[in-house]
């Protein structure tokens, strides 16, 4: 493709040089960007559903129980300690509380 055309051959159209670049962009999107967006959406949905009594794991590995939930933070209890952490520090909800909201 990078060689000049031989005598008697027509040159390929200029837009043909951009086809490989476009294909790389599409593969990059589906391999890297889209899965990351999907994971971020799942994390946001999980954080919206956090409620008192849930057992969680923080990003630093602390196993705890949620005591109260605020707009951007949660209070947790782990062993004999009580912490207030940001919601974004919650890595996983291990067990949902059975308390129904009435």
What's the architecture in CATH terms?
Roll
The helix content, as a percent range, equals: 25-40%
Number of strands: 5
Question: What would CATH call the class?
Answer: Mainly Beta
* Biggest beta sheet summary: 5 strands, antiparallel
State the distance separating the first and last CA atoms: 69 Å
Q: Could you say which structural class the secondary elements and strand pairing correspond to?
A: alpha+beta
CATH fold type: SH3 type barrels
* Mean residue pLDDT: 89
Oligomer: single chain
The neighbouring-strand order within the major sheet is: 4-3-2-1-5
Return residue spans where pLDDT drops below 50 for at least 5 consecutive residues: none
Report the principal-axis shape. rod-shaped
Cα gyration radius (Å): 26 Å
Walk me through the structure.
The protein has 102 residues and is α+β, with helices and mostly antiparallel strands. The protein has one domain (16-95): SH3 type barrels (Roll), CATH 2.30.30. It contains one helix and five strands. A hairpin with a 3-residue loop joins strand 2 and strand 3. The chain is rod-shaped.
Nutshell version of this structure?
Helices cover 29% and strands 28% of the residues.
